[in-house]
Amino acid sequence: MSIGAKVLIFALLHISSNEGIFGTDQPRNAFPSQERHQMSLEQIYYSGGRIDLSRLAAGWKALVYLPGSTLAEAHIPHSMNPVERDLVLQEAESMIDAFVKKGSWK
C-alpha cells in the first residue's frame, strides 16, 4: 500500500470519528442555519391559523398557515426594515381574516 493511500485512510478515519474535522470534541452540525432559524422563530396562533414570525436578514418575514392547513401559504409577508415587525404581522393576520371571512384565500 502506498504512502498516499495510508494518509487518505488515516484522514478518512479521523474525520469520521466524533472528534470532528479539526480535532475538537464539539460535534459537527450539518445545518447550523436551521439552529439560528429555530431560535428566532415566534409562533403566533390567530383565528384558528398560525403565523411563524422570524428574522429575514435585517427585517422580518411571516409564514402563514391558514386554518386547517399544514402547508404555509405561497405569499409571504415580509419587510427588510427591522422596525416594521408589526406591519408584517398585521399583513399576515389580514390574510387569515380574509380566509375566515370568505372561506377561501383567493
Average residue pLDDT: 79
Number of helices: 3
Largest sheet: 4 strands, antiparallel
Order of helices and strands: HHEEEEH
Helix proportion range: 25-40%
Unreliable segments of 5+ consecutive residues: none
Radius of gyration: 23 Å
| Total strands | 4
How are the strands ordered across the major sheet?
Answer: 1-2-3-4
Task: Lay out the secondary structure.
Blueprint: H1 3-16, H2 32-39, E1 42-46, E2 49-56, E3 59-65, E4 78-79, H3 85-102
Antiparallel strand pairs: 1-2, 2-3, 3-4
Could you characterize the architecture of this molecule?
The model has no long low-confidence stretch (mean pLDDT 79). A hairpin with a 2-residue loop joins strand 1 and strand 2. The protein is of the alpha+beta class and 106 residues long. Strands 1-2-3-4 form a four-stranded antiparallel beta sheet, covered by helices on one side. The protein has a domain of 70 residues. It is built from three helices and four strands. The radius of gyration is 23 Å and the shape is elongated.
